[in-house]
Amino acid sequence: MSQQEDETNLDPHLSFSPGFLAASPELTAWRAANTRPCCVLQVGGFRPGGEPTASHLGLSPVMRADEDWPVDLAGQPMQFIAQLNVAQAPWRPAALQDLALLQLFVGEQFIESGSEAGTYAIRTYPSLEGLAAREQPPFRERAWIAQGVEARWQAPQDDHPCYDDGDMVLPEGLATFPDEAHGECRSGTKIGGYATSLQHEVQFYRYELNADGEWCSSPLEPRYVLQIDSDGQAGLNWVDGGIVYLGRHPQTGVWSACCQFH
């Protein structure tokens, strides 16, 4: 049945736009105040090109010849998770404009430590020149990824925040987060947009008490840039359908990671 035929069988008293229920005035106003572009990563489902610098989960990451494989606080080789060729993305946020490639590695205590520094490594490259594939060295823990899969970027899409996002804006006349807006935040591995929270507002560092005795964000707190979601194609499962978030400090440029799961 075609979309046109399908829509003719729907309740004629309902209003539709391209196959969907028309948004209420409240949701329309909320979207207008809370929309950012994002690019979602398609993992698998296409014929891989095999380029070493392509985006992928769990294949061999590229490195410079003079680089060592990252190790954790115990001196153990970290597990390679993801390589994102952001230069190939049809859109990317400002925090990625100076980069061509980004990689995530995690150590044995990444989850148990609450994503403490030294339990993960975020490597970035401004250029793809001089990079060659490197094999994952042996590690002691269970593998996070079951099989390596090449990935590619989808076209840019509008994204919207979760109810607990600190950047979420309530437009004039709207007192609370509209029920219709639940599910408007895109899931999956993506750059830009808003963080898809699973437990609470995404926070990379614990709140701190200032001189006035008030709780405030840590001066180390970065801005969210991208997320790496659990993925069935690669067999990646952050504990229980979790997501790892990566952020970059707007002044120092330092990267941080944190994780939430169900």
From TrEMBL:
Record Pfam families: DUF1963 (PF09234)
TM helices/strands, residue ranges: none
SUPFAM superfamilies named among the record's database cross-references: Hypothetical protein YwqG
InterPro entries with a match to the protein in the record: DUF1963, YwqG-like_sf
Protein name: DUF1963 domain-containing protein
